[in-house]
Structure formats: C-alpha cells, structure tokens
Design goal:
The protein is 17% helix and 26% strand. A hairpin with a 2-residue loop joins strand 21 and strand 22. The N and C termini lie far apart (92 Å).
C-alpha cells in the first residue's frame, strides 16, 4: 500500500474534532499506542488506560474530553466525544487516501480468464477477477468487486458496491446485499445439515431454500452460512460476522448483531437485533434470543432468552483433578435436592388456623 502523509489540520477538516497543538504537524501512520512513533497518531478510548498517555511516543492522540488535560501535558491531541468511533472513521479515510495513491492498473474490468455466462448481468463499473465464475442468470451489481477464484452460482445476486474476496462461494439463488464485504473462503449457501433416519441409515433432505444477506454486512474469513431447508436463512442489514462462524439452515439474525470468531448457531435459531455473541459461543437450534442481548464468550445457550441483558454460562477452568471432583458433586445435586425436599416436608410446622 502506498505511503500516505497528512497533517492534523487535514484530519480534523475531514473528520471533525478539536485539534490541540500544532495543526501543521505531519502524521504518516496510525499505530497502537504502545508502539506508536513520533509521526504516528493513536487513540485512548477508555479512561482506565489513561496511564498509557504518559509513556507513549505517539505524535498525536485521539482522546475524550475527560482525558484532554492529561493528553495535552504530553503533546498534541484531537479531542472528540467518541474516540473509538473517531478512530474507526480515521481508518476508513486513511485507507481511501492510500488507495488513491496506488498506481493504477491497466487490467480490464473483467479479467480475460474469468468466465461470465451469457445470461449473467454485470452492472456498470463492476469488476470480476482472474479465474472467477459468474454463472447463468447471476447478477453482479454496479461497482461490485469480485476478486480472484470466486464462484457466483446460478441465479445468485451480488449487490451494488459489495466486495467478494478471493475464493468466496455464493450458492445458487442466494442474495448478497449492497456494500457488503465477504472475506476469503466464505461459503454462502451450502446445504444445511438435514438427514432423516431410515433403518439405521441417513436419508438426505434436500435443502430448497436460499440465503438472503442484507446491506452493509461483513462476513469474516472461512465462515459458512447454510441455505434454508424450505424457507431462507436470513442475515439482516448491518450484521457483522467474524471468522470461522457456522450459521445453520433457516437461522434468522437481526439487524446490526455482531458475532465473534468460532460462534456456532444451530438450525432455525432466531437471534434478535443489536445483539453481541462472544467468541466460541453456541446457540442451540430452534431457540429465540431477544433484541439487545449480549452473550459472553464460550457460553452455550440452551434455552430461549426473552429479555435484553448480559448472559453467561461458563463452567470455570480449574486443575483437572479439582474439576473432576466438582463435576462429580454437580452430578449428585439432583439427589441432594430430592433429599432436602423430603426433609423439609418431614420437619414442616403445621399451619395453625387463627380464625378458630
């Protein structure tokens, strides 16, 4: 990526915020606060990390008003109400500037090695990379970028300005909305896991539904989203999925929900809007999760969640010997409960009728 250099004044002109210090100061990188050099910009979003302000070498810090005085004591800063959001927008602007400096290529919009079926539709300004396949009746929206070795199957649709990175597969008749980012290795629309028992063997249930992905969705590398068995698997607008996530058939994920790596959601589960699911968590099939629910990492959701809140279900790690002893105790709790109930019934004091 091309080297980019700017000033604090230019950053604030594009993104806002109040600049303290020399507005002409040059910035040539965005770096972590621990390793930032004197021409780099970094940020501190949480006051509990305020001590890092005193030791960083960063040329400028993005901070909240609460940390303004501490940041000013060591050098230049940009003050904004939401430093983390400002940092996110800075990365977007920075990437756009560096890409604009990259040397233009003479490659055609459609690489000569790509296969485009005669009945496929390619929108204005869309790109299709080397060895990619766009099958019959597929639609690639205007400005979309289909990188190398991508497969867009029969009747699939890719929305305007979406980007499919290398080796993505979008199955037949599946829909990817506008402005989506789909990272390498993602499979959208593989068959769901459906089999009927038949005299000790398994009979395949054909998966006849689709996957429908909304607008502004980002899907991490090697994530798999299964097509519905009859209806569709639905990923709503603004959803963010990390790497190596498994979404089963007929799952519904509400708008702007985010899931960290290695989450598994079993078939027909329904997850609400504005939820977060921590890494490695599992949601069992046919359950419902309300809007605004936060599920901790490694939690197994075994029942529906009907109210917003933060939910955790993790058996604490321990020395293996202690863990086995504790697990043995847990297995005996059912019997202990029954004995306690029987004891309470034998020792219960008879109720006196005060009306007599």
């Amino acid at each position: 990526m091309a080297r980019f250099e700017t000033t604090l004044e230019q950053i604030c002109n594009h993104l806002g915020g109040v600049c303290h210090g020399d507005s002409r100061q040059l910035i040539d990188a965005i770096e972590p606060i621990e390793t930032a050099h004197k021409k780099a910009i970094s940020f501190v979003a949480n006051p509990k990390y305020g001590a890092q302000i005193d030791v960083t070498q960063a040329g400028c810090l993005i901070v909240s008003p609460a940390l303004q005085d501490r940041a000013l004591a060591r050098g230049a800063c940009i003050v904004t109400a939401e430093p983390y959001l400002y940092f996110a927008r800075l990365t977007q602007w920075w990437r756009a500037q560096t890409l604009s400096l990259s040397p233009s290529t003479a490659e055609p919009l459609i690489h000569p090695s790509a296969y485009i079926h005669p009945t496929a539709t390619i929108g204005d300004g869309a790109r299709v990379g080397a060895f990619s396949v766009v099958a019959a009746e597929a639609v690639i929206g205007a400005g979309a970028v289909i990188k190398n070795h991508v497969s867009v199957d029969i009747g699939a649709s890719i929305g305007t300005d979406s980007v499919l990175h290398a080796q993505v597969t979008v199955g037949e008749h599946c829909v990817v909305g506008a402005r989506c980012i789909v990272h390498s290795g993602v499979v959208v629309g593989a068959d769901g896991f459906g089999f009927a028992p038949n005299q000790g063997r398994w009979e395949k249930i054909e998966q006849l539904g689709r996957v429908r992905i909304g607008d502004d969705v980002e899907i991490g590398a090697n994530t798999c989203i299964d097509r519905g068995a009859l209806g569709d698997t639905v990923i709503s607008d603004g959803v963010k999925l990390d790497n190596l996530i498994q979404i089963g058939h007929n799952v519904f994920i509400g708008a702007h929900t985010a899931m960290a790596g290695c989450v598994g959601v079993a078939g027909s589960a329904k997850i609400g809007a504005h939820c977060t699911v921590g890494g490695g968590a599992i949601v069992l099939g046919h359950l419902s999760v309300a809007d605004h629910v936060n599920i901790s990492a490694a939690t197994v959701v075994t029942r529906s969640i009907t109210k917003p809140g933060h939910y955790t279900g993790i058996f604490p790690i321990d020395d293996n010997g202690n863990w086995e002893k504790n697990a043995a105790v847990v297995k005996q709790l059912g019997g202990v409960r029954e004995r306690l109930r029987a004891l309470e019934q034998r020792t219960a004091v008879p109720t006196v009728d005060s009306s007599k």
